[in-house]
Amino acid sequence: MIRLLGVLIWIGPATIWYGGRMIWAVFAGSSDKTCICQKSPKRWASQLLWISGVKICFENIDFINPSKPQILVANHSSWYDVLALVLIPGTFVFVAKRELASIPIFGRAIGSCGHIFVDRKDRSAAVRSLGVAKDLLENASPTIIMFPEGTRTKTGELQKFKKGAFVLAIQTGVDVLPAAVIGSREVMKKGSLRIKPGTITVRVGMPIEVDRLDMEDRNELTERARNAVVKLQVQGAQKDIEPIGGG
User: Fold this and answer.
1) Max mean pLDDT range (24-38, 46-60, 105-119)
2) Are 178 and 205 in contact (CB under 8 A)?
């Protein structure tokens, strides 16, 4: 409860400060807006992780290439998945559920900085959102982060993947980067307010090339990416681990 109390005391002022900076940088047309939009969430996440007593370790981090666009797909079992993935190198954009846009300051801040909201209840709106992601991938070099399960798992078991991320990959010819977030459910489960200190590992897999695939291959690509995430969840570390965060 002490850690939860610390988070609750900290999160309001920190969100106002970092979110306000992001909103102001965008709407004021600051020359540093890209830097602010990328660094502010990383600092916000790092501080929240420190207060929570959570460390982040990356494995196979070299598979993330900041100089080229990629679509990173990961399992989702906790809000702390997001905090862990915010710390990846390079420019990143989340594709998040529409409900997050309504959070005061936070929603406005991440929306103004180019993160994409998807309305899962409106298919046509969801398609338009993926069109925005397609334009980003074709005109910039971000890592677009998506949770293909669509929502957090209650049991920890990997759910069925939705096809949106993989349709987007085929349309743009951008590699799919599978990743497993391990340990976040032990820190904070879905439906629980209890925060436990611990270590979250982000294990990145080898990129899946899609340049020879067409839309008829979307189901196969979806299943291939899901199988890759499953394997990453259970395999041992293959490279040195880089710790980030607080203890």
Assistant:
1) 46-60
2) yes
pLDDT for res 195: 94
Taking the C-alpha atoms of residue 81 and residue 88, their distance in angstroms, rounded to an integer, is 12
Structure letter (DSSP) for residue 173? T
CA–CA distance, 85 with 94 (Å, rounded to integer)? 9
DSSP secondary-structure letter at 126?
H
Check if the beta carbon of residue 60 is closer than 8 Å to that of residue 166.
no
Tell me the domains of the chain and their CATH numbers. 55-238 (3.40.1130.10)
Specify the 3-state DSSP secondary structure of 64.
coil
| pLDDT interval class at 153 (50, 70, 90) | very high
Residue with tokens 């710390």: 87
Task: Tell me the CA distances in angstroms from 53 to 3, 18, 94, 129, one per residue in order.
Answer: 8, 21, 24, 35
Dihedral of CA atoms 142, 143, 145, 148 in degrees, nearest 10, equals: 110
Give bridge partners of residue 245 from the DSSP assignment. Answer: 55
Backbone angles phi, psi at 68, to 5 degrees: -140, 150
Q: What is the pLDDT of residue 24?
A: 92
Query: How far is it, in rounded angstroms, from Cα 88 to Cα 86?
Result: 6
Q: State the pLDDT at residue 247.
A: 46
Distance CA 57, CA 64 (A): 14
- Bridge partners, 177 (sequence order): 72
User: What pLDDT, on the 0 to 100 scale, is given for residue 60?
Assistant: 96
Mean pLDDT of 110-122: 81
